[in-house]
Design goal:
Shape: globular
Oligomer: single chain
CATH class: Alpha Beta
CATH architecture: Roll
Radius of gyration: 24 Å
Order of helices and strands: HHHEEHEEEE
Length: 167
Amino acid sequence: MLRLFKPTLLALLAVVTALVQSVFAAEPAASTRAEDTVAIQQLIVKYAHSYDALDVEGYVSVFADDASFKFVGNDLHGKDAIRKFITAAKERKDSAPATDKPTKSFHSITNTLIEFTSATEAHHRSYWQIISGPAGGPFTVSNAGTYDDIVVKRNGKWLIQSRTIPQ
């Protein structure tokens, strides 16, 4: 009887082991999840720094090729439309008349929430404020809102697939 039981037990153990491994393989390792979380946070910060500096290529680089970006009165699709938007903002600033005190503006991003929907996609939400004023101050909050994003991992790099700034 023990001879019959032993092969059956080994076969059952092999099946259970395979099932457990497949379940845990579906979830990324904690270290990978932590690395992805940091990478997404860095992506959001790069967006803000690139916008504040009006760095066209840096700004465009945070978006997927087929990204969408929706905000008050705008519905942009693809990197070309996003590039056109940030280039126009840079041109407006560059062509503004010189003043005694040039204005500065900075994005401040807080309360970031990242929820992974898969190993290559996450939902990101955060609050933002634009702090602006003449160089040297005083500065005030000139605008505020939320970002509602879908971010995707493509070729090992996290990118904004869609960004909505609700009214």
